[in-house]
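Please go through the protein record below and explain what the tokens say about the fold. Record follows.
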Amino acid sequence: MSQETFQEATKPFALDEKEMAHFKRHGYIGPITIYEPDEMEQFWRTVRRNLLDRTHAAYPMDAESGATNIANYDRHLDVGLLAEHICNRRIVERLTSILGPDILCWRTEFFPKYPGDEGTDWHQADTFANASGKPQILWPGESESRFGAGTITVWTGFTDSTRENGCLLLMPGTHREMKFDESKGMSYDPSRINQTDKDGIRRGFFGYDYRQLQIDPDWTPNEEDAVPLVMRRGQCVIFWSTLMHASLPNTGKRYRMGFAARYVPTSVRVYPDTDWVEEYGGRIPLDRYGAVLVNGQDTWGHNRLTSHTLRGKPFPAPAT
């Protein structure tokens, strides 16, 4: 059996040559079906119930962290179905084509959009220092003064995602040049949520204004270059976080729920020299945090990993 045939047999979801060419050129691939709609409906119904129990959640829901989504970061660390999701072979095997065999999931986040909610600013993310003021990931050779790699985001629709309820927008090919400088930092002001029109579209970033990070203050994204990610529930899109992305406002009557899982190779340092994350009006400690090895091995030893136990049960083991 040839190496190519062996790979196809052992990793049926790996990206083929055509898909890889598309990803390298455009910076994303999708929509990709991970779950059938009925399957996702049951999945999300169960997850919603489990989210109410915060007994084993990694971060406290208190005055400092409870005001924003930050307290619900990384619920894959205590909700079994979310742990299984980030390790789903339909996702991870595709990621090995991009990142190589040794992969960490270092963060997950929910992205709800309710009727009347503003769209999300056009933005790019590299080290995720934009809100916290300190790099949260650093690739080999990167430092606080030299950025440029980002993370792979897998954004899965837990509900249908339409133009009316605020679907994602991507600008193909924009992952090669940063238009934003995260080291400039953004000021947090929750009073501006749902209050600002930008080029005729109501947009913001959970109390921040991404225009504060623009390298050229006069630069304006060309909306005509945007690709709307209309997806049915259970589908995902895989993209570089340095790809220009945004979302539309929710002008419909149904809410939209997205779930973003973020992945890097094990060579990347996660939360380097950091014990807290402070952003979006919240502050969470990292003493219960651990990255998840979803594939391969960690020979670098940079990062604290989970102990592979979840509510007393084995955490999904990484593939090798």
About this structure: Helices lie at 3-10, 17-26, 37-51, 80-86, 89-99, 129-132. Residues 1-7 have pLDDT under 50 and may be disordered.
